[in-house]
Amino acid sequence: MALLKKILTILILIGVVFFVTKKCTPPEIIDNSTTVYDTIRDSIPYAVPEYVPQLIYKDTGSTQWRDRLIDTAAILAEFFAKNFYRDTIVNDSTGLFVLEDTLHQNKIWSRKITGEAYSRTFYETTTITDPYIPKNKYFFGIGAGGSLNKFDFSGDLMFQNKKDNVISLSYEVLSQEVWLKSFWKIKF
Questions:
Q1: pLDDT confidence bin for 157, thresholds 50/70/90
Q2: 177-183 and 166-172 as β-strands: parallel, antiparallel, unpaired?
Q3: What is the rounded CA–CA span in Å between residue 5 and residue 38?
Q4: What is the number of structural domains in the chain?
Q5: Which of 18, 29, 91, 103 could form a disulfide with 83 if both were Cys (CB 3.0 to 4.6 A apart)?
Q6: Cα separation, 118 vs 41, whole angstroms
Q7: CB-based burial of residue 8 (10 Å sphere; 0-12 exposed, 13-18 middle, 19+ buried)?
Q8: What is the DSSP string of 38-84?
Q9: Is 175 within 8 Å of 147 (Cβ atoms)?
């Protein structure tokens, strides 16, 4: 009858421990999110100043053509022709900028600068990872101790769940006693 009371007491204690650990709050959820910040820069249209060419150097004439036949019609046709030139200044990830010149009568007749600055996106990424992933843990141990009147050895089994609650089962060899203990984590 005494053995039946001990077994019944142990089963009740096991039931109480599992009931209490089930009602505990769930573990804290650590945010494993990624934060992305986007910055978009658009081009702002602005007025391009009118280009006025400045004379830097003027060739007054050359002596290399004096001994050759001169085709005046070809020279005049070239002089009055409008020559259009297009030069790409920048064409990369920052944008596309093109310079367009029209030459007429040995002068820059018109100059046009067209361009488009591409939108740029800057990303700042923050990644938070959880270094600790809770797991169930099992332990086995032995112990010895007592008082002046009594000395005993024990074999112990211990279980730690994901919420860091601990259940311990001890068997004392000499006195043949069984101990069931439960521990809860204290948060400050």
A1: very high
A2: antiparallel
A3: 69
A4: 2
A5: 103
A6: 8
A7: exposed
A8: EEEE-----PPPPP-----------STTTTS---HHHHHHHHH-EEE
A9: no
Shared domain for 96 and 145, answered yes or no, is no
11 and 74 share one domain: no
To 5 degrees, how large is the angle CA 119–CA 125–CA 131? 170
Residue 27 pLDDT more than 60? no
pLDDT band at 24 (very low <50, low <70, confident <90, very high): low
Domain boundary among 85, 100, 126: 126
pLDDT at 177 over 80: yes
Distance CA(155)–CA(143), nearest Å, equals 6
Tell me: do 159 and 109 sit in the same domain: no
Q: Are strands 82-92 and 137-146 parallel, antiparallel or unpaired?
A: unpaired
